[in-house]
Amino acid sequence: MPGCVLYTDPMLALPMVTDASGNAALGFSVPADPNLIGADIDSQALCIDPPANAPGLTTSNGVGHLIGER
Q1: How far apart are CA 46 and CA 18, in angstroms?
Q2: Which end of the chain is more exposed for a tag (fewer CB within 10 A), N or C?
Q3: ∠ at Cα 65 (23, 61), nearest 5°?
């Protein structure tokens, strides 16, 4: 896709719907497992955007999430 960069490994895909402003949110729970402390999870969105380019897809920036403790 022209102008798009894949920052993450697409190991898991979760379909989501955006609101009228293009915002989407995904909530999830992290188990209370001390072995998960320090785990790094990356995410990125692939958006259906027909006028953007020939394939009609664009990507968001990548985001890193680090599981910690309070």
Answers
A1: 12
A2: C
A3: 50
